[in-house]
Amino acid sequence: MQIQLNPLTEERLAQSLAGQPGQFKMFYDTEDCGCNGVLVIRIVSGPSPTDIVFQTEPFTFLCDRQQESLFDEVMRLEAEAGYPAYKLTSDSTLFGSNIRVQDARS
User: Taking a C-beta distance cutoff of 8 angstroms, is the pair 88, 72 a contact?
Assistant: First the structure.
């Protein structure tokens, strides 16, 4: 898998890290949502035992092995100008248009 980032998105993700080490985990949160899950980007300190690293530049991106099939091979993550959210798309689908970053570092 690969996530393409534009300059605004790279800048916002770097701001989210706030100068601290961290990795971005693509995660469908199914807790208390009553649906198939809500896509969030979690900042984590490192991968869990079931995570796979699928990209390392310019940031490290992870996803859980069991959720890998929910994503496409090539995707685009775009920061929303003037709004603290992101949109994740591919050539075939819109994964989400109000994706938030959650800092889950300990």
Answer: no
Helix (H, G, I), strand (E, B) or coil at 60: coil
The pairing of strands 2-5 and 74-79 is parallel
Which pTM was predicted? 0.91
Reply yes or no on whether the pLDDT at 7 is more than 70.
yes
- 21: CB partners within 8 A, 6+ apart: 45
pLDDT reading at 79 higher than 70? yes
Domain ranges for the chain, please list them: 2-103
Look up the CATH number of domain 2-103.
2.60.300.12
Reported as half-sphere exposure (CB side, CA atoms, 13 A), residue 25 has a value of 22
